[in-house]
């Protein structure tokens, strides 16, 4: 097993990786910016290195500073967490060229999946369903208009190099497309350094379901069930649960098989997620459902996901430990031929944001009291006295509730949300209290429009 691990990230995910590393007897090394010096992950690491000012470009995206920290501390491996450099193929190559172990998929797989158009084409060739869309970037507005006419409105205009729900717009007709194309292209050039644009069929009512895959050290790819991720604002997730209330055993088998084919198509190693859109159909005449009849590949996230804890509960694994074992060339802790889910888990993302408009609301944490009890897990990046700054993502903590049934997990979620006390930064706990009484959510029939219908 790896003996020393540098975590090239911050906050909740850094603390999460450090926790598993220390349980396994691995020396955990943190890097931090000046803004994060007082956060729990810094104190909990065996060693911590200041790498720069608050600006991520000068700290958490500063490759030279991170590699210098690894060298000075004698780190053997680097875990990138999620965000920042986690899906940067050049960083992965540089880490390995420096003689360090990269805890993630190979750089070639990251490159292959990093461009949405290339990824779509690879998946289609592998027999994974993809939505109608362009096989090449829409080089200019005229090409986008022609593509949309062939696909049929409405269409989604996407940044080919985008991710995290950013760089997307919906066009219901040609006039809207002309506006959205220019906006998405400009955003993509500014944020990703690549203005390539993809045109794809837009489905007004869909569910967002993803499959957790793990590429093992022996070359096999296995799937650890699906997660429902349809509670979103601005195309970014707020709630995840596993298993999905929309997925039947027959559909689950098809989803998981397609996700494994996706991983195999790029020689995937380590943890990753295959994201899909499910197109719901109406309840049948006897009121059974909801059912789904189609699913399409959306993208592959070549890293550990924020929502990985719900899979950990349902499958009884520690995905960070499995990542470390794969990176070290070791077999998994579980039998890949005997994977069996049990129970239900729900994750709520506790963000420093207004619960109505979802605008960021950083500030000093005056009170931080986490809920406890059976089936309650809190993965937090902050505690009382810390400051949530405007420099990074607004995620403060993840509240994970588990139970034997979905109903039990929801009831535990209600209690935990009521008990979680945060004063100082704005937070979205009131939104979750509302969601957990919403009929669509409770009966499992919701789709990606649920938040907008609640507002």
Shape: globular
Beta-strand content: 25-35%
Distance between the termini: 49 Å
Rg over CA atoms:
21 Å
Which fold name corresponds to the CATH topology of the largest domain? D-amino Acid Aminotransferase, Chain A, domain 1
How does the helix and strand content classify structurally?
A: alpha+beta
Protein architecture, described:
The chain is an alpha+beta fold and 455 residues long. It has three domains: 100 residues, Rossmann fold (3-Layer(aba) Sandwich), CATH 3.40.50.20; 70 residues, ATP-grasp fold, A domain (Dna Ligase, domain 1, 2-Layer Sandwich), CATH 3.30.1490; 248 residues, ATP-grasp fold, B domain (D-amino Acid Aminotransferase, Chain A, domain 1, 2-Layer Sandwich). It has 15 helices and 20 strands. An eight-stranded antiparallel sheet has the order 13-12-9-10-11-14-19-17. A five-stranded parallel sheet has the order 3-2-1-4-5. The chain has a three-stranded antiparallel sheet with strand order 7-6-8, covered by helices on one side. The longest helix has 19 residues. It is globular and about 60 Å long. The termini are far apart.
Features:
about 25% strand, alpha+beta, Dna Ligase, domain 1, eight-stranded antiparallel β-sheet, globular, 20 strands, about 450 residues, D-amino Acid Aminotransferase, Chain A, domain 1, Rossmann fold, five-stranded parallel β-sheet
């Amino acid at each position: 097993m790896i003996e020393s691990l540098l975590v090239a990230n911050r906050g909740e995910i850094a603390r999460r990786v450090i926790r598993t590393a220390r349980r396994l007897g691995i020396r955990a090394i943190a890097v931090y910016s000046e803004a994060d010096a007082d956060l729990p992950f810094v104190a909990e690491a065996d060693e911590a290195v200041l790498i720069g000012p608050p600006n991520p470009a000068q700290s958490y995206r500063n490759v030279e500073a991170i590699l210098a920290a690894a060298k000075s501390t004698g780190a053997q491996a680097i875990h990138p967490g999620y965000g920042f450099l986690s899906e940067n193929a050049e960083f992965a190559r540089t880490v390995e060229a420096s003689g360090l172990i990269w805890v993630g998929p190979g750089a070639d797989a990251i490159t292959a999946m990093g461009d949405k158009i290339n990824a779509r084409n690879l998946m289609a060739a592998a027999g994974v369903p993809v939505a109608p869309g362009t096989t090449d970037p829409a080089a200019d507005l005229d090409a986008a208009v022609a593509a949309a006419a062939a696909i049929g409105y409405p269409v989604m205009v996407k940044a080919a190099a985008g991710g995290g729900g950013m760089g997307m717009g919906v066009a219901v007709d040609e006039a809207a497309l002309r506006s959205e194309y220019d906006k998405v292209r400009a955003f993509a050039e500014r944020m990703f350094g690549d203005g390539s644009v993809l045109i794809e069929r837009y489905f007004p009512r869909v569910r967002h379901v993803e499959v957790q895959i793990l590429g093992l050290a022996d070359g096999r790819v296995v799937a650890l069930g699906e997660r429902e991720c349809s509670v979103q604002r601005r195309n970014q997730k707020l709630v995840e649960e596993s298993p999905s209330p929309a997925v039947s055993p027959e559909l689950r088998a098809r989803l998981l098989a397609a996700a494994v084919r996706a991983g195999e198509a790029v020689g995937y190693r380590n943890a990753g997620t295959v994201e899909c859109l499910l197109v719901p159909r109406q309840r049948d005449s006897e009121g059974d459902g909801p059912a789904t009849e189609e699913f399409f590949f959306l993208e592959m996230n070549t890293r550990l996901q924020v929502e990985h804890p719900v899979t950990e509960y349902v499958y009884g694994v520690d995905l960070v430990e499995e990542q470390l074992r794969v990176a070290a060339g070791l077999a998994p802790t579980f039998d890949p031929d005997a994977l069996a889910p049990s129970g239900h888990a729900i994750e709520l993302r506790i963000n420093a944001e207004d619960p109505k408009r979802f605008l960021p609301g950083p500030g000093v944490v005056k009170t931080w009291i986490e809920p406890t009890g059976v089936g309650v897990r809190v993965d937090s990046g902050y505690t009382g006295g810390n400051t949530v700054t405007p420099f990074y993502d607004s995620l403060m903590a993840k509240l994970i509730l588990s139970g034997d049934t979905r109903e039990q997990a929801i009831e535990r979620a209600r209690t935990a949300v009521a008990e979680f006390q945060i004063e100082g930064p704005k937070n979205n706990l009131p939104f979750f209290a509302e969601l957990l009484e919403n009929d669509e959510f409770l009966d499992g029939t919701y789709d990606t429009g649920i938040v907008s219908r609640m507002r």
